[in-house]
Design a protein that fits this description.
about 220 residues; Rossmann fold; two-stranded antiparallel sheet; 7 helices; about 25% strand
Amino acid sequence: MTNAIGVNDRVSLVMSLRKKGIGNVEILRAMELVPREYFTHPAFRDQAYYDIALPIDCGQTISQPYIVAYMSEALAVDNAQKILEIGTGSGYQTAVLSHLGRRIFTIETYRELHAAAQQKFDELELDNIVTRVGDGFEGWREQAPFDRIIVTAAAPEIPPPLLEQLALGGRLVMPVGDMRGNQKITIVERTNKGFEREQVLPVRFVPLVRTHEDSA
């Protein structure tokens, strides 16, 4: 990376996230370590450290840094946990999680996005990330259960297979709602008595899609 966009921009971003209430030191450190410009479409690279969502290929977006940090904090990850991410997208959220959890399993619907993200993970030597192309609604049964599950696209309801694949004592974080903007980040914890849910923050995410012609 050039010096025009880099470490100083990441430090400034971290300072702004602190001011917005992100207090977890490990998450702030991860946000500082991951070069967001590396995951941003070249046409928008000069905006990589603005606290905004930006377009990427396949009609998807790279999430606003504050939302990445907020969802990571809501996930309450530690370095012994196995994490499932639904919606690799640009790979930015995945890269942040790779500095927080033990192993990250991430599923992407679009082959183009999957290939681009995998290349970035390889180049950055993020070797605790496992990727696949697939239907995020179905999760990753072969690797279940998961200590944490994060979904980076919205749906009206949480897909039942994801709840089934959440370990006892585990936590799931996902935007839930319609595509008219009535979405909230929802936190689900699996207990001995079932699933406890809490809605915490209004958001607007792209929809979670089941299949696409490019993923076939």
